[in-house]
Amino acid sequence: MKKVFVFCIGGTGERVMKSITMLMASGMDTCGYTVVPIIIDPHLDLDEKKNLQTLIDNYIAIRDASTVDGNGPDGFFGTDMEWIGTLDSQTNNTNKEAGEDRSYAEFLNVGNLNATSINNYFIKTLYSTENLNSKLSVGFRGNPNVGTVVLQEMLTGASWFDLLKTNCGPDDRVFIISSIFGGTGASGYPLLERKIRSTVDSDILRDVFMGAVTVLPYYGLTDPKKNNSKIDSGNFMTKAKAALTYYEHTVKSDLLYYVGETTLQDNHENNEQTQPDEANFIELVAATALFDFLQRSKPKERQYLTRAIENDVSSLNLATAGKGYASLVKCLADFRILKMLLDVLPKEKYFPLIQTKGFNEDFYKGDLAKVNTFAKNFEKWYGELSSKKRAFAPISEMKPSKMADIIKESVELEAKDDSWYLLEMIKNSKQDSGNKMKNFLDYAYIAIDTYTKKIL
Predict the structure, then answer these.
(1) CATH 3.90.1070.10 given to domain 3-100+138-307
(2) For residue 332, pLDDT beyond 50
(3) Any residues with CB less than 8 A from the CB of 89 and at least 6 apart, and which?
(4) What's the start-to-end Cα distance of the chain, in Å?
């Protein structure tokens, strides 16, 4: 089993991993790699983090429940995903030290310094009073100078790093997701790279094929004075430029992807405690970097990559984004059609697979309950993507009675309504894995793919 260890650093890392999980559920190919997410974020109470953990848990549960003799579904939920803790008897304990509810001054043990000591003066020269009084449990408030110190300690004491050394095989890879304009991501990415490349007791890990996506500024924040926030998005570009200058001489990844906006398209609520950030097109583009990375071979020299869109418009579809996004649009269409089938089929009294395959009311309420929950989260996520100022909305409203024109301004599908997909499910039902959930997901994917492959 070849694996890719995906490090999700900070809030942006978590939101990109959410998009990765949605695309994996939609059938995007990981070239046979099992995805092993590792979340690095000191903000223990952040809803975004908790929601991502729940989403991944749900994905893993669906995958496990639809796997027979090691073979899972071939399309939807077609990739294995595991927490690093499940690779060993130990637990994933990435957040213990940095997540404690104490200030940065307490972390540095400033209170035990003599008020007139040179060390005390040195610390007050390096850090503002706000830096020293900030709580570690809410992150680094866009201050990489604080994050670098705390995360260095966090990485040094993390039990998952021993697991990484033990379980990283010669065919495995590492991929790191972070932003460059905040505190956690900007500081955590180079620290993690350096720790991996300086490993002394594992040649495999030290020389692992490593990729990373660095997310440049792509949103602004509302006036910090309204919420008494210490984060000012007016500094994002300046911080990003400073970090890029540093990265130029320190980056150790074999492939480095840069993703961002030339101008900030949207403003998020400036709330340090909850960070209520909705899904964004840039996060989706950053997610595609992982799948591109898994298709590439290790280069002889470091390579830098990015993506573009065909037209700079406020709402993108397949035509305006460009043909390079066709596989992405297909994945989104496939899963949204699956959601439509999940809504329609429980009402289809004369669907023959109710009797022959057990796809009855109890099945939808029981085995498929987790799939339904995931599908609802998917719809909410897509709704957020399609309503931003830089919207990604390539798919029309799902109407079972009108399916041919669901891909906006691009492709007309042969399936005129939902009955075309139901008929294809019946045709493919001769295959039987012995697992109802795997059967359902396989039949649905083959049926949907029959028509949506035209998008490619």
Answers:
(1) no
(2) yes
(3) none
(4) 29
Helix (H, G, I), strand (E, B) or coil at 424: helix
pLDDT higher than 60, residue 273: no
The contacts of residue 407 (CB under 8 Å, 6+ apart) are: 317, 318, 329, 333, 394, 395, 396, 413, 455
- What is the SS3 assignment for 361? helix
Burial (CB < 10 A; 0-12, 13-18, 19+), residue 343, is middle
Domain locations along the chain? 3-100+138-307, 320-455
Backbone angles phi, psi at 395, to 5 degrees: -120, 135
Residue with structure tokens 């660095």?
214
Q: What local confidence, expressed as pLDDT, does residue 88 receive?
A: 61
- Closest C-alpha to 142, from 270, 17, 265: 270
Give residue-wise pLDDT tens across range 403-414: 999 999 889 999
pLDDT exceeds cutoff 50 at 90: no
Distance CA 227, CA 224 (A): 6
Beta-bridge partner residues of 288: none
Q: pLDDT tens digit string along 92-101?
A: 444 444 445 5
List phi, psi (to 5°) of 9.
Answer: -100, 120
Structure tokens belonging to residue 367: 């085995």
In terms of C-beta distances under 8 Å and separation of at least 24 residues, what long-range contacts does 339-344 make, across chains too?
339/375, 339/378, 339/379, 339/398, 340/398, 340/400, 340/418, 341/418, 341/421, 341/422, 341/444, 341/448, 342/368, 342/371, 342/372, 342/375, 344/400, 344/418, 344/422
Burial per residue of 302-321, b for 16 or more beta-carbon CB atoms within 10 angstroms, e otherwise: eeeeebebeeeeebbbbbbb
C-alpha torsion angle, residues 299, 305, 310, 312 (rounded to 10): 180
Q: Please give the pLDDT value at position 98.
A: 40
pTM of the model: 0.87
For the stretch 3-43, pLDDT in tens is 999 999 888 899 999 999 999 999 999 999 999 999 887 76
Task: Indicate the angle between helix axes 326-344 and 369-385, nearest 10 degrees.
Answer: 130
d(CA 239, CA 225): 20
How deeply is 238 buried, as exposed, middle or buried, from its count of CB atoms within 10 A (0-12, 13-18, 19+)? exposed
Handedness of CA 20, 81, 211, 7 (dihedral sign): positive
Q: Which residue has the tokens 């039990």?
A: 159
